[in-house]
Amino acid sequence: MARFGNVTRAAEALHVTQPAVSGQLRQLEEELGLQLFTRTKSSVALTQCGQELLARAEKALEAFGDFVHAAKALHGHIEGDLRIGVVMLDPGMLRVGPLLNLLVRQCPALRIDLHVGRTPWLLTALQASEIDAAIMVARSAPKGTSMLALKPLTFRLVAPSGWKSRVASATPAQLAQVPWLRMTPRSAHQELLTEILTQTGITPVETVLADHELMIRELVVAGVGIGLLREDLASAAQAAGELVFVGDYRATTHLAFLYPEERENEPAICAVREALRELWELAPGAR
Fold first, then answer.
1. Can you tell me the distance from the alpha carbon of 213 to that of 235, in angstroms, rounded to the nearest whole number?
2. 88 and 189 in contact (C-beta within 8 Å)?
3. What is the pLDDT at residue 35?
4. Which of 263, 114, 26, 40 is nearest to 271 (CA)?
5. Cα–Cα distance list, 128 to 38, 189, 259, 260 (Å)
6. What does the pLDDT read at residue 76?
7. What is the 3-state secondary structure (H, E, C) of 47-78?
8. CB contact at 8 A, 203 and 197
9. How many CB atoms lie within 10 A of CB 157?
10. CB distance 37 to 44 below 8 Å
């Protein structure tokens, strides 16, 4: 009513009759014991009391809308499209299949598009609204986003198995002289590798750039150079005699679900967040 200044236009916007709007308004004023509007034959206007309460009323309506959205998400009454970016890691480790299985059963009317990409693209796409959310590797939420941490991930420096004696007792200066794989700029791998290099003072001779963990593993096994691998993947390759750990050099980050912070209470985002909490056995309030 305050927005339209006219009972008829307000009724049309609300898809109800004019008497219904007038009746609800009178009932509200009676319950409050206040006159909220002054009326003429053709218009209505807020009184001083109405103007003072308008901002609070708008906040209350917004909060109620968020409540309704969250309730619908919990009951699976969700429709529309949702674009989820997925980082280029092992889908089995990411549990993408079980996640989609949960969502399809809980929200059958929700259409989900998966977009696989590198970390730099996922960040850009999320900030440009080209995707609605992302499952990726991140230590913290970039500006304007919220993050649900799913699992800690540790990465280790690894070398070809044939280099075992070469790297077993090598100093940082000696390690800097052997070939290294380059990590994709702005990727989680590059962030972690940079941390290790900064701590050790190593300035490596970087050769081939690799942007996928299975490719990094393959290149290290083939003898191309030292690389950075997820610890569980590296441990399996070490057990198979395909590569060796380089000392105890490691860095830790998280597998996480990221989404725009202003979409915190959207039904589809809530549904994915709750499905991930169930899938990864996280506490209800975990972030």
1. 13
2. no
3. 87
4. 263
5. 45, 23, 12, 10
6. 54
7. CHHHHHHHHHHHHHHHHHHHHHHHHHHHCCCC
8. yes
9. 27
10. yes
35 three-class SS: coil
- On whether the CB atoms of residues 230 and 189 are closer than 8 A, the answer is no
Q: Pairing mode, if any, of strands 243-260 and 179-183?
A: unpaired
Question: What tokens appear for 147 in the block?
Answer: 């993050």
Beta bridge partners of 87: 117
Q: What are phi and psi of 187, to 5 degrees?
A: -90, 165
Distance CA(277)–CA(57), nearest Å, equals 34
Write out the two tokens for 203: 């300035």
Instruction: Reduce the DSSP state of residue 161 to 3 states and report it.
Output: helix
Which residues of the chain register pLDDT less than 70? 1-4, 13-15, 66, 68-76, 284-287
Distance (Å, rounded) from C-alpha 114 to C-alpha 100? 10
pLDDT of residue 69: 63
> Which residue segments constitute the domains of the chain, with CATH numbers given?
7-74 (1.10.10.10), 80-151+255-279 (3.40.190.10), 153-253 (3.40.190.10)
| Rounded-to-integer distance, Cα 151 and Cα 142, Å | 18
